[in-house]
Design a protein that fits this description.
By secondary structure, the chain is α+β, with helices and mostly antiparallel strands. The chain has one domain: Jelly Rolls (Sandwich), CATH 2.60.120. 28% of the residues lie in helices and 19% in strands. The longest helix has 26 residues. It starts with 20 loop residues before the first helix and ends with a helix. The N terminus is likely disordered. This is Fe2OG dioxygenase domain-containing protein. Belongs to the iron/ascorbate-dependent oxidoreductase family. It comes from Lithocarpus litseifolius. It holds the Pfam family DIOX_N.
């Protein structure tokens, strides 16, 4: 592949202290990305699979909650296969109103339209601050930044959220409650697919106090999407992640060593296995690597809800998945709070955090 010309450093001294990609992307005359956003060996250069997207598993949530016993059993089997083969699936007929999903997406757009002064109130400083907003991933450490602005809020067991724009907090509280219910039902079915009791994960992970995090991502148009990245390849830290977006693609997952473009079906969730479920299942279900690509035509908004154990839960491989066979524990037990703290002061690096607890 021919070398891609890099933008001149001197051309972008005015952008050396960017606090908002949205503001940068809206700069008059912007035709190339600042060098601090250009990856010399951009992971976007890696091959993208030509496999048809319809091979990605689709789970009909309504059959888990209101289907016949035979239908539920079949869906649990399909869910287990999806977790094993892909670490990912799409969920349809989940019962969360489409109008509510759209209202929260518009709330995210409205939040990023606030002035810098208004958003500064919610900046946060530390990983465990209940509300944070900013850009990139860890801008204080990174040498090359990501084409992304974000809002993060801890929404369970206590609900923390910005009070601007008007109505955003109320819509989001209802949305988080609804998606938490979807995640818990999925985790019951995943428990059964592992041969465990339906409520095993719920009890072992203390989901009544489980950490739920709301993440709103804004990926503005980019003049050179072949050089920039929205988010690098990484796995998520919790149990299950539910994602929806504003109709603009950019989510890619790794499957069989190739990257696959994933577009959300209408009124659906994109759901991926995260690190704590890999630990609990002793590696039977693996968290997936995924990334966010950017484009030059339209701004992408993604709404990510991560669902994890309670902060004080020590996550171990389920004894039933180790003691009933010849398997040995493949992971060390670690308190979820400590696992999160390991992310502090680090760049995103594939599944590097999970590697720390592998036996």
């Amino acid at each position: 592949m021919a070398a891609i010309p890099q933008p001149s450093q001197s051309s972008f001294t005015q952008f050396s202290r960017i606090t908002s990609i949205k503001k940068l992307a809206e700069s008059p005359g912007l035709t190339s990305v600042p060098s601090t956003y250009a990856f010399t060996n951009c992971p976007n250069d890696q091959a993208v699979s030509e496999d048809p997207e319809d091979s990605i598993p689709v789970i009909d949530f309504s059959l888990l909650t209101s289907g016949t016993p035979e239908q539920r059993s079949q869906v649990i089997q399909e869910l287990g296969q999806a977790c094993k083969d892909w670490g990912f699936f799409k969920v349809i007929n989940h019962g969360v109103p489409e109008s509510l999903m759209e209202a929260v997406i518009e709330g995210i757009r409205g939040f990023f339209d606030l002035t810098d002064e208004e958003k500064k109130e919610f900046e946060g400083k530390n990983l465990m601050d209940p509300i944070r907003c900013g850009t990139s991933f860890n801008a204080s450490m990174e040498k090359v930044f990501y084409w992304r602005d974000y809002l993060k809020a801890f929404v369970h067991p206590e609900f923390h959220f910005p009070n601007k724009p008007a109505g955003f907090s109320e819509f989001s509280m209802e949305y988080c409650k609804r998606t938490r219910g979807v995640a818990r039902e999925l985790l019951k079915a995943i428990s059964e697919s592992l041969g465990l009791e339906p409520c095993y994960i719920e009890k072992a992970m203390d989901l009544e106090k489980g950490l739920q995090v709301f993440v709103g991502n804004l990926y503005p148009t980019c003049p050179q999407p072949e050089l920039a990245m929205g988010m690098p390849p990484h796995s998520d830290h919790g149990l299950l992640t539910l994602l929806t977006q504003n109709g603009i693609g950019g989510f890619q997952l790794q499957h069989n060593g190739m990257w696959v473009n994933v577009n959300a079906m209408h009124n659906s969730f994109l759901v991926n296995i995260a690190d704590q479920l890999e630990i609990l299942s002793n590696g039977k279900y693996k968290s997936i690597l995924h990334r966010a690509a950017v484009n030059k035509k339209a701004t992408r908004i993604s709404l990510v809800i991560t669902n994890g154990p309670s902060l004080d839960t020590i996550v171990n491989p389920a004894p039933e998945l180790v003691n009933n066979g010849n398997d040995q524990p493949a992971y060390l037990g670690i308190k979820y709070k400590e696992y999160l703290k390991c992310l502090r002061g680090k760049n995103l690096d594939g599944k590097g955090n999970l590697d720390r607890v592998r036996v």
